[in-house]
Structure formats: C-alpha cells, structure tokens
Amino acid sequence: MIEREVANGRLLRQLRFIKEIDGLKDVWRQTYRVDGSRRENDAEHTWEIMIMAVTLYEYAPPGTSLFHALKMLLFHDLVELYAGDTFAYDADSHRDKNERESRAAERVFSLLPKDQHETFRRLWQEYEDADTASGQFARCMDKLQPFLHNIHSRGGTWKQHGIRRQQVLERHRDWMDQIPALGELVEKLSHAAVKEGFLLE
Amino acid sequence: MIEREVANGRLLRQLRFIKEIDGLKDVWRQTYRVDGSRRENDAEHTWEIMIMAVTLYEYAPPGTSLFHALKMLLFHDLVELYAGDTFAYDADSHRDKNERESRAAERVFSLLPKDQHETFRRLWQEYEDADTASGQFARCMDKLQPFLHNIHSRGGTWKQHGIRRQQVLERHRDWMDQIPALGELVEKLSHAAVKEGFLLE
To answer: What is the ipTM of this complex?
Structure first.
C-alpha cells in the first residue's frame, strides 16, 4: 500500500474502504442477465437498482426521499462481501442471515473513520428494517429487479428451481400494497408468466 | 415482451429503458480490478465511483450537491451502450468522441417518456460540460477511480501502454486545483508510482 506514505489517517481509512469494496464484483448472484447469457454480480445489480429507483421514483410511497433511498441502495449489499449472497427462495440460509450480515456490516464499515462508520451502518440498518417510506421503496427496487430479469429471461431462476407463483407473490407481499402501480405490475406479469409456461401455477 | 400486455404506455417505456441499460454490463473498460485479476465493466465502474462520491464528499468543491452528483454519475456512462468505452490515453478516438456520445445519449434517453428523456439528458450534458461544482466533483470521481486501480494493481494500464507521469497529471489537471486534498493525493501517489517503477517519469 504505497498510499500509506502519502495520505493522512482519515483519507487513508477512506481509501482502504474503497479498495476493499472492489470485492463485491466477485459476489455472484443467482439472477441471470436479461438475455440469460450469464449471472450477474452484486456491483452490477446495485448499479441497476439505483437506475431503477431514479426511473420509477414517481411510484414511490408518499414521503420517500430519492436521495436517501439511493444511499441505502448503494450500501445495502456490502455485507455480502463476507456474508455472501443468500438466494431468495433458500429457507435454510435465511435462518442465520441476519446474524451473518450484521457481523459483516460491522467488519466493512469499521474500515472507515468513526463518523462515517456510524452513518453508513445506520443507513444499512434502516434498509434492513424497511420501516420508512424510503427504506420500503429501496427494498422494492431490490426485489423487483430479479423479478424483471426472470420475466425477460423467460423463467431464469424460477424455472431452474421450480418456483411457483404463490412463492413469488409471497416474496413481494411486504411492499405491493404500499407501491400499488408496481404491485399491480408484479401481479399481472407473474400471471402472464404462468400462462407463458415459465412459472408454475 | 410480455409486459406489453400488462403495462400502460408510460410504465412500458420505463421498463424498456431499464431492460436496455442491462447492456452496460457488456461494455468492458481498460481498467483492471484492484487485484489485477480482470478488467471491469461500466456498470461495476459506475457503482464504485458512486461509493467513492459518498465516501469522499467532504473534499468536494463548495456548492457541490451530493444528490445531484450521484444522479450524474449514475447516468454518465450510458452513452457507452452504443458509443463504446474510449481509452483515456487514446487521442485518435477522442477526436469524434463528443459526436458519437451525443448521438448515443439521444438514442438511449429517448426510450423514456418525454419528461424523463429531457431531465436525464440534461443531467448527462451537465456532466459533460463539468462547469458546475457537482459536475466537477462527479468527473473527479470518474477519473480518480482508474487512477487508484492503477496504483493498487501496481501499474495496470499505465505499464501496459507505457504511460508517463506527465500524461497522468495532464489528465487530472482540470480538477486538481478545485479539489485540493485529492489533487495532492494524485500528485504524491503518481510520484510514488514512479519511484516504485510502475509509472514512467
């Protein structure tokens, strides 16, 4: 680390954090690209859901701050640097997910100066709790993206794992009433996917 | 496109835009990962410079809006969907870069409803012009990231193309005075890189 000789303590911590998070480009998700050509990683996924948030903001619940939602999205998957990606329909790994991710959050954010460590960790916690309008909108983007990829790739991970429509709706249930335009989209698209034969009834 | 049957005109345009931009994950940059293991794509690059912007915001020029800078960064490379990545030190391709990218901006943003088409295109133009504090900060992040990757990978594209320290400083000259803490970092790190033997004097 040649930056050790040239940067002061605060900037050095920030540079180390930035270097460390490059590893998120190695965390591979189950989700396929829209053309089905390959899986995608957490960095690519995060970029896409931020574009989605800006594009679909008009459907967000009243009181949503787009700026706040963007910051939450930016950091929400950093815990997977150490905790790995947990597949949406894998009940077993979901059991200790919270504990694994909480330890990982501490590990990655503590690379930063104390004030940023606290601010970024709070953002991550707000995303996890999803009890604010912005947090809810952010989580909706995170869940809607793999849903749309499964639609575009005509089945993707649904086909591979034999997922049923009720399981899909269950996964989106917590935001569908609060974000009705997009909830309706999920309702109708999942119905069409069954008709097209790439999602089980 | 099964969404044609279920979404109204406005939402349908937004969904098509979101599907189209998935292609940015196929636009490969010259820049290597920090561990030198492989090149990275535009989606990964964009995600990283947004994390950098939030982390390094305290060094931004007075008057910078972090929210505005984040939105500019989010969209700044979408033109490379059709125009491709132009290597920083390739003078030939820089000649028609503006014209190619301007056509590409029109093509990608016109997928959206008219109001969003105009808003997002303006954001892109502001980034290109870089004559606001936010635009300047955004461009600094975009340039600083490959610089840091070349430092971490001990030479990266500098070594490969036989780049000299003066060429590097020339590339960063337009922001270094306005963002002195990071300008000083580039000055000192590039000097250290010469001493370590992975950047030519």
So the answer is: 0.94
